[in-house]
Structures are given as structure tokens and as C-alpha cells.
């Protein structure tokens, strides 16, 4: 097709060259073949929205690598791949041959077999919609982002490169609820389908591991294990209408994935892009998005999420057994809007081999298989290896039919923290807990000051409590500590790092507390006496008592800094 767009040959992936040359090249777009054959020459994929990165990795890059090369059988073989820092000549040849032999599957705008689409998808009245429908940040229907500069009535066109990215994103993250009913979809009624879930990544908090180059990132996100079975195939091999798991027709199924290839290239929607030649060149201006395959629940082989383990009988349908053999449910751990990644370190650092189990009334955690795998090879990688954890997710609203918020965060993670008994692990878990405790202490201070004025504390689920300002102030300090703990193995250095953190946290938490104390009116200094409940003693609330209580609690939380100040009394008094 003269006006086609081929993902293997045409540039569409924005990649920065790895630093080190005399002149740093600007970020350019490269075709799939270049990205996959020379990944050691590039850094992270550059995207406009963080949720695009897992879509590209899972829907295209990782499945091609897995299907072309298989996967390492165990951690030892994985390390032999990784240690070369680039593909071996044989691996490079196999990937190149794979792209050649499957070349016809990757033309985005092919009229007969377009990549990731159903060629003849149509409605009974041949309706199409604005191309903005597949752009998560565009205003379409009920999904109108805050401060959006466009409206649904605006013309919207996408370059083929942009359309390819948003096509992948839609398969992973699309909103739920009603979708257009396609001709030949036997489950469509009155021109629509109902009950559609969100895209599969919308059900979880996505965790990717990132290395120094795209090659390292690809391997860090490739779990070891047996090679794919004959039933486990990527979507581009299941386009034939006669295939049992065909995604080349409007018909769809509700089923579990056959394996990683099926899971990563899951077609949660049937889509068709409509290109046209404009004054600006070839553009996708209209789209059709219909119902696609439905996954009953996230399978346990999912490598890109952490897990919450709950006692049997809870609402999740995924079940597993604890180390003691007790049945427990297993749900993907979703991200919370506004919550920094380091605040979830208890789940992130709960190795699968020693997962924190669910009790009768409490949830447990298990980390992702990939982090567990990274922990198993941490000695070989070296504790100074610059591992980064990227987290992303979407918060949906109104029956998951609209996007309320997008969450994304990245943080450095010392490999030593993945070892259960390491001093670094204990240290960073303690630091995260201390930050939360300081936020709680400031919230208690605020509550006591409000009671001293005759008011009520700020409800935990309404408004913004001052503890959030504490967490915001401590955020760069925690990240600095995480980066600084890379390569640290000596207990004395770990303790020194914790003391430095506590000394900084001591001052930052006081700055927030002092602002609260300075803002109260004179009446709070006199205070009030209140009874908290029937049969309970009366309690007096005034500024001096609230301040003293906070200072005592801060000293208990930051015990190293407190001990150091007592040993060196010439320091600050606050």
C-alpha cells in the first residue's frame, strides 16, 4: 500500500541515544527493527503520557523478543544474556529473521490485515467517531479531562506514528461501559455492547523495571521460565478467522490468557483506524472502537503488578495458597492517586518467596515476579546497579466509563533492598514508616489545635490534612536516601544514612508543625476542656500541650536524631 505505515520499517518510537558520545543527539523516532536490533544504543522510550510506555513494551517489544528468542530457563541463563549488555550475534539474527518472516503483520494501515485491528469492522449504519476517541487526554463523550483545551466537536487527526501509540494504549487502558456494536458481533444489541470492562492494565497498578539502556529494560521485564506453548501466541498470529482464538473478526470471547504472549498482546477491543490523505500528509481522522476479549480476572502469571493477599472468601476470584497451605485470594494491587511510590515499599519489597501472608482480618502482600527475579540475581548484578521502578495506573470514575486521574511515579531502588535480611531493606522500610508516622503526628497536632479552639478535627476522608504537606516535604529526602543506598553494604554507612535522613526530617517536619502553631488565634492558648466520650475523663486542649505532645512524638519517631541532639546539645532547639 503506497500510503501505508509499517511499524517495522517506518519511524514511530521516540528513543534517546545513550549518553557517552562527544555530542548528545536529539531524541528521534526510530522503526521497530532499529529499536529491537540495537536496544543497547538507546535509553527509555520517550512518551507523552506515562501509561503509553507499558503499552508499547507489552503489546509489541516484549512479545517479539519472547516469541523470537523464547525466554531464559532460569536466573543463571538470564544473567548470561544480561551480562553481555546487548544481543549476541545469534540472538540479533533471530530477531531480524522474526521481523522478516512476520513482516506482513505489522502494517498499521494495510487494507486487508492492519496491525492490531479488524479490517472490515463496521456498524450497521457505517458510523465512525472522531480519532480523539482513542486519545486518553482528549475530550470525548463523557470523558472530558479537566482544563481540556479541545472539545468533542473539534476535528482531531493523528499522524500514523501517534495513531500506532494510541491504538496500543486503548487495548491496555480503555474505559469501560458501553461500546459501539459491530456488524457480525453476535452479542451486540441495538447497536451497542454493554458490560465491557476496562482494558486489562486498568485493573492493576503497573510496575515496570528500568535499566540503563532499552536492552536492559527489556531483559529486566522478561521473566524466566519455560518457553511459550503452541497455544500461546501473540495477537498478530491469531488474525485468521478460523483460528480458535481469532482476534481478526468482530466476534470476541471471555476467557483466560493462554500465556504471556496472549496476556501481553491482549485485544480488549476490536478497533479500526480510518486514514485519509490531508494537506499535512497521511492522517488518521476517524476510528471505530467495539467490544473485544474479556479477561475474567488477572492471572497469577501477570509479572507487572504487586499483589494483595486476602483470606479466602473475599471478593477476588483469583485464588492461591499460602506457604502453610491455607487458601487465600490474590488481587492486583492498584495505585492510589497522589501517593508516592515509596509509600508502598511494604508491598514492593514483599518477595514472593517470603510474601507477607494474609491473616484472619488482615491483608498480606507479594511483590511482582520481576522484582522477585531481580532480587535473585542482585549479587550478580551488583548492589550498585542503578535499578529504577516505574509505576503507572489510571483511576476511573462513573462506572469506569471516564478517566478521573492518571498516576505515574518512578523511584530508584537499591538491589540490596530486595534481600529479605539486608540492612538496606530494613533501613528504607523504617524510613518510609517514619515518614508516615511524622505525617500522622502533624495531623494529631492539627486536631489538638482545632479542639483547643472548640472545633472538630479535619475528617480523614475530606479536605487536605497538614500531614500531606509533611509527606510532600519529605518526598525528595526519601528519594535521595534510596539513591544513596545503592551499593551500600556496610552497616555503619547504612546507619549514617539513616541519621542524616532523620536530621533533615526533624527540621522539615518542624517547619510544617511551626506553621500550624503560628497560625492559631490567641484563644487556642487558653484552651478548652472536653470529654471525648461517656465515662471517659475530661481532657484539656491548648497550644502548649499540643506542641509538647508533637515534640515528644517526633523524638520517639526520629530516635537517632534525638539521641544525636542530646549528645550534641549545641544544635538547634526546635
Q: Secondary-structure map with pairings?
A:
Blueprint: E1 13-15, E2 28-30, H1 32-37, H2 52-69, H3 75-82, H4 89-101, E3 129-130, H5 160-173, E4 177-180, E5 192-196, E6 206-210, H6 214-220, H7 260-264, E7 269-278, E8 281-291, E9 307-311, E10 319-321, E11 327-332, H8 345-348, E12 364-366, H9 369-376, H10 378-381, E13 388-397, E14 402-412, H11 423-452, H12 467-484, H13 491-519, H14 523-526, E15 528-531, E16 538-541, H15 543-557, H16 559-567
Antiparallel strand pairs: 1-2, 3-8, 4-5, 6-13, 7-8, 9-11, 9-12, 10-11, 13-14, 15-16
Helix pairs in contact: 2-4, 2-5, 11-12, 11-13, 11-15, 12-13, 13-15, 13-16
Describe this structure in words.
Helix content is 33%, strand content 16%. The protein has 574 residues and is α+β, with helices and mostly antiparallel strands. The protein folds into two domains: 13-291, no CATH class; 421-574, Orthogonal Bundle (Topoisomerase I, Chain A, domain 4), CATH 1.10.132.100. The strands form six sheets. Strands 10-11-9-12 form a four-stranded antiparallel sheet. α11 runs parallel beside α13, α12 packs antiparallel against α13 and α13 (491-519) runs antiparallel to α15 (543-557). The longest helix is centred in the last third of the chain and has 30 residues, at 423-452. It is globular. The model has no long low-confidence stretch (mean pLDDT 89).
Amino acid at each position: 500500500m503506497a500510503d501505508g505505515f509499517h511499524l517495522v520499517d517506518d519511524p514511530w518510537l521516540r528513543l534517546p541515544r545513550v549518553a557517552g558520545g562527544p555530542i548528545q543527539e536529539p531524541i528521534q523516532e526510530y522503526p521497530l527493527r532499529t529499536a529491537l536490533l540495537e536496544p543497547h544504543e538507546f535509553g527509555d522510550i520517550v512518551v507523552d503520557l506515562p501509561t503509553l510506555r507499558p503499552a508499547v513494551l507489552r503489546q509489541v517489544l516484549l512479545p517479539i523478543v519472547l516469541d523470537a528468542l523464547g525466554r531464559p530457563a532460569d536466573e543463571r541463563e538470564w544473567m548470561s544474556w544480561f551480562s553481555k549488555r546487548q544481543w549476541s550475534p545469534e540472538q540479533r539474527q533471530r530477531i531480524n529473521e522474526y521481523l522478516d518472516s512476520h513482516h506482513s503483520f505489522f502494517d498499521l494501515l494495510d487494507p486487508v490485515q492492519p496491525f492490531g485491528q479488524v479490517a472490515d469492522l463496521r456498524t450497521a449504519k457505517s458510523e465512525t467517531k472522531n480519532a480523539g476517541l482513542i486519545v486518553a487526554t482528549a475530550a470525548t463523550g463523557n470523558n472530558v479531562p479537566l482544563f481540556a483545551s479541545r472539545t468533542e466537536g473539534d476535528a482531531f487527526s493523528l499522524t500514523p506514528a501517534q495513531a500506532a501509540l494510541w491504538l496500543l494504549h486503548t487495548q491496555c487502558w480503555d474505559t469501560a461501559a458501553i461500546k459501539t456494536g459491530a456488524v457480525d458481533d453476535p452479542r451486540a444489541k441495538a447497536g451497542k455492547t454493554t458490560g465491557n470492562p476496562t482494558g486489562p492494565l486498568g485493573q492493576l497498578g503497573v510496575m515496570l523495571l528500568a535499566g540503563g539502556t532499552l536492552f536492559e529494560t527489556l531483559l529486566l521485564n522478561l521473566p524466566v521460565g519455560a518457553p511459550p506453548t503452541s497455544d500461546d501466541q501473540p495477537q498478530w498470529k491469531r488474525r485468521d478467522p478460523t483460528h480458535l482464538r481469532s482476534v481478526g473478526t468482530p466476534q470476541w470471547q471471555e476467557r483466560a490468557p493462554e500465556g504471556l504472549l496472549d496476556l501481553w498482546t491482549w485485544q480488549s477491543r476490536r478497533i479500526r483506524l480510518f486514514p485519509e490523505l490531508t494537506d499535512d500528509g497521511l492522517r488518521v481522522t476517524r476510528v471505530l472502537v467495539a467490544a473485544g476479549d474479556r479477561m475474567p480476572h488477572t492471572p497469577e502469571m501477570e509479572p507487572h503488578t504487586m499483589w494483595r493477599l486476602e483470606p479466602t472468601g473475599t471478593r477476588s476470584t483469583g485464588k492461591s495458597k499460602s506457604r502453610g497451605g491455607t487458601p487465600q485470594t490474590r488481587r492486583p494491587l492498584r495505585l492510589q492517586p497522589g501517593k508516592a511510590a515509596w509509600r508502598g515499599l511494604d508491598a514492593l519489597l514483599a518477595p514472593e518467596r517470603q510474601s507477607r501472608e494474609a491473616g484472619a482480618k488482615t491483608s498480606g502482600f507479594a511483590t511482582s515476579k520481576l522484582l522477585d527475579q531481580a532480587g535473585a540475581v542482585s549479587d550478580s548484578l551488583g548492589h550498585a546497579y542503578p535499578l529504577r521502578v516505574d509505576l503507572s495506573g489510571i483511576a476511573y470514575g462513573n462506572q469506569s466509563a471516564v478517566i478521573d486521574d492518571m498516576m505515574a511515579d518512578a523511584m530508584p531502588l537499591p538491589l540490596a533492598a530486595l534481600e529479605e535480611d539486608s540492612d538496606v531493606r530494613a533501613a528504607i522500610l523504617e524510613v518510609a514508616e517514619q515518614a508516615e508516622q511524622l505525617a500522622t503526628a502533624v495531623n494529631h497536632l492539627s486536631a489538638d489545635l482545632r479542639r483547643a479552639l472548640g472545633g472538630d478535627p479535619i475528617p480523614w476522608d475530606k479536605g487536605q490534612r497538614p500531614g500531606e504537606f509533611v509527606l510532600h516535604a519529605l518526598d525528595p529526602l526519601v528519594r535521595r536516601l534510596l539513591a544513596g543506598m545503592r551499593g551500600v553494604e556496610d552497616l555503619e554507612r547504612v546507619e549514617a544514612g539513616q541519621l542524616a535522613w532523620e536530621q533533615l526530617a526533624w527540621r522539615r517536619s518542624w517547619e510544617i508543625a511551626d506553621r500550624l502553631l503560628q497560625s492559631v488565634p490567641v484563644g487556642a492558648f487558653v484552651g478548652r476542656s472536653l470529654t471525648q466520650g461517656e465515662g471517659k475523663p475530661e481532657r484539656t486542649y491548648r497550644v502548649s500541650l499540643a506542641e509538647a505532645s508533637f515534640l515528644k512524638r517526633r523524638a520517639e519517631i526520629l530516635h537517632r536524631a534525638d539521641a544525636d541532639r542530646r549528645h550534641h546539645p549545641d544544635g538547634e532547639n526546635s
